[in-house]
Amino acid sequence: MTGVQRDRLVLVVDDDETVRRVVRHVLEVDHFDVVEAASGHEALEAVASNRPVVIVLDVVMPGLDGIEVCRQLDHAEVKVLMLTARGDDATIEAASLEAGADDFLGKPFSSIELLDHVERLVQG
Less Cβ crowding at N or C end of the chain, within 10 Å? Predict the structure, then answer.
């Protein structure tokens, strides 16, 4: 990945292509480099090959869901922002944090909210 700054590299993982495109656009406008994955398995491969600093990770996906992906990550290497559209945010948030997530954002969210959460994670 030529010209990519690892400290600005974000992996966006969602099975919904529209969500991935919107998140990518918001992040790229704010000068982040973005890699996408459409499944939990793709996410784990992308983490290994790209080493992002932050992962924006959907909770509910077919197959390997976001919580299981989060459990499998080396959290010393990457920060995780979990996304969900599920109605029971408190339960999902607790499970996400227990799995090692660093932050949580419910859908729908504004561009400003997304950038605020990602920037905080990047800054540590």
Answer: C
